[in-house]
Amino acid sequence: MLPPLIQNPPPWPNGARCAVCFSFDMDVESLLHLNHREAAPSRLAPSSALRYGPFVAIPRIIDIFRHYGIRQTVFVPGWCIEAYPHAIEALVEAGHEIGHHGWLHERPNTLSPGDEARVLDRALEAFDRIVGSRPTGYRAPAYALSEHTPDLLVERGFTYDASLLGDDVPYLLKSSKGTLVELPSDFALDDWVQYVNMKEFGFMMPIQAPERAMEVFRAEFDAAWTYGGLWVSVWHPFVSGRLARADAMARLIQHMMDKGDVWFAPMTEIAAHVQGLVDRGEWTPRTDEVPFWAAPVDHLVTPSRG
Fold first, then answer.
1. Hey, which residues does 23 pair with through a beta bridge?
2. C-alpha 94: how far from chain center
């Protein structure tokens, strides 16, 4: 008998052992325009790699999910929604959730509160015009949630955030304006650190067979299944939608299906389930109040740099 490594796992629907969401961040060329503004128009090779996402990977991912009868979540910057509406419309038609992911992949913790609000609202305009509905969930670009973000999200009616890394199961994020359900992931479930080899973004990971990455993803899933956790990937269509990696993704889904008792759901449904448990008094998650620190911590000494 194994020890209970998760002390307070939530009850999942229909007695499932764990909850799973293959979430994707469809950033396309927002990263290129953000980091290489003047040079971006002349960088055709990296641009073509990023455009692989909406033109090749998204249809492929939709087909994979349709084959297995599951609906999942794709976080998209507002600029990308406007630049590639055909991909968004295909995802929505297939029943997948579109989450908020900033405007041009700006990191919220580098912005003033006013600029962060401007970015949030500009992307919401893209949702209104192209998605046809407001998002319920948000993921900060590069995990860069600021101390102001939770308040801004609560004020705009968001119900969950998916930017943090603080648990193996959902928890609550409490700010001065209200509470969000936090659906955490981990760097171990991010395909960027497994696959990305692009000098434009300062990542030159060694190129290796997808099975090496799948060993990590599968191990994380097997542990979540054993102990009642939440498994949320943070993947990118232009990265994990490539042929060999997409084949490995399908085999990973099949592995999960073969294990059985897995709840596959979009993140908005996972958040709604958690909130329902809380509202009915059927489960009490832990609560993190933000910001964690009101001011910088004083240093006792100043280390030398020699």
1. 234
2. 19
User: What's the CA gap between 53 and 76, in Å, rounded?
Assistant: 12
Collapsed DSSP state (helix, strand, coil) of residue 89: helix
Dihedral pair phi/psi, residue 65, rounded to 5°? -65, -35
The pair of three-digit structure tokens given for residue 282, joined into one six-digit string = 């059927």
Residue 201: its pLDDT value, please? 76
In the prediction, which pLDDT does 305 show?
77
pTM exceeding the 0.90 threshold for the entire prediction: yes
How far is 36 from 43, CA to CA, in rounded Å?
9
User: DSSP letter at 143?
Assistant: G
Sign of the four-CA dihedral 247, 68, 10, 25: positive
Q: What angle do CA 291, 294, 296 make, to 5 degrees?
A: 115
Closest CA to 273 of 152, 165, 159: 159
**CA distance to 59, 157, 158, 187, 280, per residue, from 143 (Å):** 26, 20, 17, 10, 31
- Please give the distance of CA 146 from its chain centroid, rounded to a whole number: 16
Strand, coil or helix: 211: helix
pLDDT digits (tens, 9 = 90+) for 8-47: 999 999 999 999 999 999 999 998 998 888 888 888 898 9
Predicted pLDDT at 306: 65
In Å, what is the CA distance from 156 to each residue of 105, 175, 227, 289?
19, 14, 35, 19
- Strand 197-198 vs strand 203-204: parallel, antiparallel, or unpaired? antiparallel
Residue whose token pair is 């709840």? 263
Give the contacts of 270 (CB within 8 A, at least 6 positions apart). 19, 21, 160, 170, 183, 230
Say how far apart CA 78 and CA 180 lie, in whole Å.
21
pLDDT tens, position by position, 172-198: 999 999 999 999 999 999 999 999 888
Residue 295: other Cβ atoms inside 10 A: 6
Low-confidence ranges of the chain (pLDDT < 70): 306
**Residues contacting residue 252 through CB under 8 Å, at least 6 positions apart:** 214, 217, 218, 221
